[in-house]
Amino acid sequence: MSISRRTARSVRILGVASASAALTLGLAGNALACNISEFSAVAKCDGAKGVISVTDKDPSGVPATVTVFLESNGADEKLVGTEEVKGSREGVTIDFSEDWKPNATYRIHVKAGNQVDEDIKPNLKTPSEACESPETSTPPATPSPSEEPSSPSKPSEEPESPAPSQPSESESTPAASTGDNNPSPAGESNLAETGSSSNTGAIAGIAAALVAAGAGVMFALRRRGATNGR
Fold first, then answer.
1. How far apart are CA 112 and CA 85, in angstroms?
2. Any bridge partners for residue 124, and if so which?
3. Over the stretch 141-154, which tens digit does the pLDDT of each residue have?
């Protein structure tokens, strides 16, 4: 039984369409498949701490296991750590705390289902300078005496007992002795008040006696003259 030309043409068109559809689906599948090229790593600093960051930009979001090794002479020297990541078109980053040394080499291995099981190429090499330690804080300046906090006031001392009062000059100096405790005569009171000595009364008595004697002599002379005149 022969196939007509029209049927053969239809089969040919159908084959071409199927092939195109298969190619399109294959390309789309490859585009959505996880690939090692979608992973990247970098060594950086978080303050004084070293960090190795791995970023997954797998748009299909296939869960992946990332393992970091420190390399020495082409062999694994130390396991730094293992973490899970689920990428996105924008990228998802995971950090491994590592006090890395300058010019050190790290191997990062990625395992994502049955699609990826290999290392990120090339191996990660750290910068030539280590992370800087934070600056030492300057100690606070010593406060000046005026700024120093005042010390608590000391309890007031007990009041001193008052010193004994010194006797006044009038009380301590005895009154000058007049030489005679007997009261002076009335006529001599004025002289005593003026500061005359106690001999003033005797002198006054002698003067009075001399005056009386002179008066007697004058009276006798006048009487004698009167007698001679007769």
1. 9
2. 106
3. 665 555 555 555 55
